[in-house]
Amino acid sequence: MFCVVCCVNNCAINPHKFLKLDSSALMKKENKRKESLSEIINQILNLLDKHKLVDGLVAKQDIPKQKLIKNLVNKQNLNTLMRLLNDLHAADIADILESLPIEERLIVWDLIKSENDGEILIEVSDAVRQTLIADMDNTELLAAAEQLDTDEIADIAADLPEDVLQNLLENLDVQNRERLQSTLSYDEDTVGALMDYDIIPIREDISLEVVLRYLRKLRKLPDHTDKLFVVNREGSVLGVLPLKKIIVNELDLKVKDVMSYDVVLFKPDDEADHASDAFERYDLVTAPVVNEKNKLVGRLSVNSVVDHIREEAESDKLSMAGLREEEDLFSSIWKSVQNRWAWLAINLITAFIASRVIGVFEGSIEKVVALAALMPIIAGIGGNSGNQTTTMIVRGIALGQVTFNNLQRLMMKELGVALLNGILWGGVVGIFAYLLYGNIKLGMVMTAAMILNLLLSAIMGVMIPLVMNRFGRDPAVGSSILITAMTDSGGFFIFLGLATIVLI
C-alpha cells in the first residue's frame, strides 16, 4: 500500500488541483478525432483497393513495359498513402492499424517510417502488436526497441523474441540494463511495472536559483512533471518542491523553506489499482516511488496510471463477456474460437441443466400451454436484475468497499431492492397474464414467481462475485454468465413448480 509522509504537526494532505477539464468539451474533441480517423481509414482503404485493382488489371493486359506501368501507378498510390500516414500521431496510426484487416494492416505497416515503429508498437493493443512483430525481422525489432525508454521496452518485452530481448539487454548500458531487468521482475499489476526513471532529485539545502539554473541546463523536463523530489545525501525522500513555488517565491530562498513535506509515496510492490485510486483521490500528476529504505528509485506519472485504468477497463469488459484475453478484431477464425470457447462451454452445460428443469415439468406445460410463452419473461427479468447486482458488487470489490463487516447490510439492501422490484413488476406481469389468458391463478403464479426469482437473483448476484474473489479468481470473469445460468434454471424451477402446485 502507498504511504503518506506528513509534516511534524501532522497536517492533513491538501492536494492541489492542477488542471480541470470540461468533460463535454473533451467528449466533443474525442468524437471529432474519431470522425477524422474514420475518414482517414476510408481514404486508406480506397488507396489500397486502387493498389490491388491496378495489380489485377495490369496483370491481365499483354502490353509492353507492363511492369513499368504497374510500378508507376502503384508508386503514386503508395506515396499518397505515405504522406497521409506521416502527418499522424503514433496513437492515431495505432488506431488505424487496429481498424484494418491483417493483409491491409501489414501493407500500411511497411509504409510507416521506421523511426516511428517503436512508439507505434507501444500504442497498439497486445493482439495487434503480435501481428506487427511477426512481420518484422530481428534487426527491425531491435532498432524499434532501441528507440524506446526503459519502462516502454518493458511494456513490449513479453511480445519480443527471446534472442531480440537478449541482444537488446546486451546493447543497453549498465544502468538501463539493471532498470529494465528490475522492471521486468515486477508483476504487471504493480507500481514497479508502471514506474519510470525520469526523475529530477534535488537537495533541500540549495537555493531556488540553483534549482532554476539546473532546470535550464537540462533544457527539457520529463513529461507530466509538476514537482521535483527532494532527497537527502543518502537519496531518501524528504518531500517535494512544486514547480510553481519556484516561480512565485524569491530565488534566494532555500528549497527547505518552500518545499512541501506532505508527499504521497509508493513502493514498487504496491498494487497498481491502489495507486490509481490515490492518484484520483489526491489529484496527483506524479509521485515518487521508494524502496524499503525510503530511497528514491523512480516515479509514477499520471499518463502511466491512465493507461493502466484504460487497460483494466477493457479487460473487465472482456471478462464480463467471458473472453479470456484481448482479441484482434481481424484475427483468424481459429484464434477467435480458442479465445471464446471456454465460457461458451460452461454456458452450454448450464443450458442443458435449464432444459432438464423444463423437462421435469413437461406434463404441466402440456396441460397449461401458456406456461411455455410466459417462462422467458421470468428468466429474462431475473437475469437482468442479477447482472445489475453483480456489477455493483464487482465494482465495490474493486474499490475496496465490500468487506465482511458490511456484507450483511449489502445483502439485506439488495434483497430489499429485489422485493420491491418483484412486487412492482411482478404485479405488472401478473395483471398482464390475467388479461391475456383470463386466468387469475396464472396471474398470481406469475407475480409470486417474479418476486422469488428476483430474490434469488439478488442472493446470487452478491454471492457469486464474493465467492470467486474469496478463492482468488477475478470476480468479473464470467460472472454474468454464471448469474444468468442460475436465474434461468432457478426461474424455470420456481415458475413451473408454482404452476404445477396451483394450476394442475
Structural overview:
With 504 residues, the chain is mainly alpha-helical. It contains 22 helices and seven strands. The protein folds into three domains: 32-188, MgtE N-terminal domain-like (MgtE N-terminal fold), CATH 1.25.60.10; 195-320, CBS-domain (Roll), CATH 3.10.580; 333-503, SLC41 divalent cation transporters, integral membrane domain (Tetracycline Repressor, domain 2, Orthogonal Bundle), CATH 1.10.357.20. Helices cover 67% and strands 6% of the residues. The strands form three sheets. It has a three-stranded mixed sheet. 30% of the residues are buried.
Q: DSSP helix count?
A: 22
Shape: globular
> How many whole angstroms does the radius of gyration measure?
30 Å
Return the CATH class of the largest domain: Mainly Alpha
Structural class: mainly alpha
Report the end-to-end length measured between terminal Cα atoms: 61 Å
Summary, kept brief:
This protein is mostly helical. The chain is built from 22 helices and 7 strands.
Helix-strand layout with pairing:
Blueprint (H helix, E strand, L loop, with lengths): L2 E3 L17 H38 L5 H21 L3 H9 L3 H10 L5 H7 L2 H9 L3 H8 L4 H7 L5 H10 L2 H12 L5 H4 L6 E3 L4 H11 L8 E5 L5 E6 H6 L6 H4 L4 E3 L6 H11 L3 E5 L5 E6 H19 L12 H28 L1 H6 L2 H29 L5 H34 L2 H31 L8 H25 L1
Parallel strand pairs: 2-3
Antiparallel strand pairs: 1-5, 3-4, 6-7
Key features of this structure:
504 residues; mainly alpha; MgtE N-terminal fold; CBS-domain; Tetracycline Repressor, domain 2; 3 domains; three-stranded mixed beta sheet; two-stranded antiparallel ribbon; globular
